[in-house]
Amino acid sequence: MRVILTLPLKLKPEGNRREAWYQVAKRRKAEEQAVALSLRAYAPALVDQGFPLVCTLTRVSGGTLDSDNLQGAFKGVRDAVARELGIDDGGPEVDWQYRQERGPRLRHQIRIEIGPPEEPCRHKGPGVNAGVKSEGSP
Fold first, then answer.
1. Which of 4, 47, 78, 87 is most buried when burial is the number of CB atoms within 10 A of its CB?
2. Which among 114, 96, 127 is positioned nearest to 39, based on CA atoms?
3. Which CATH number goes with the domain that contains 9?
């Protein structure tokens, strides 16, 4: 089972921001509540299928962030996902991946994709080794 959630959240980098602690806490709490409410219905099924899981957090915005600010901006989101799954966000149960995409200006959103790790394709269909002859073939 793979869950993909898209939420209309504007994530702000926290590395160089000059905000009072209570403003940061208020914004992070709102982010965490939005993620928790959206994920709550799917979390039991994700946990039941077992670990490890891969969680890809994608920021869609008109601008881009560098990698450390991107990861910092997702701090509240990551905490909420881990809490809903009943795990520690620093544990080995989830591989956390971060991405960002350019989107329309002034239209911010995040995408959360959670599911089992992708397994490599073992099926060799027609055309995979086209033109290669194995021993004993004509």
1. 78
2. 114
3. 3.30.1330
Expressed as residue numbers, the domain containing 28 is 3-115
C-beta of residue 12 within 8 angstroms of C-beta of residue 59 = no
29 part of a folded domain: yes
- In the chain, the number of structural domains is 1
The answer on pLDDT for 132 being more than 60 is no
Distances (CA, A) of 54 to 1, 51, 82, 87, 119: 12, 9, 12, 13, 12
Q: Which of 34-43, 68-77, 84-93, 122-131 has the lowest mean pLDDT?
A: 122-131
Q: What is the pLDDT of residue 19?
A: 83
| SS3 at position 16 | coil
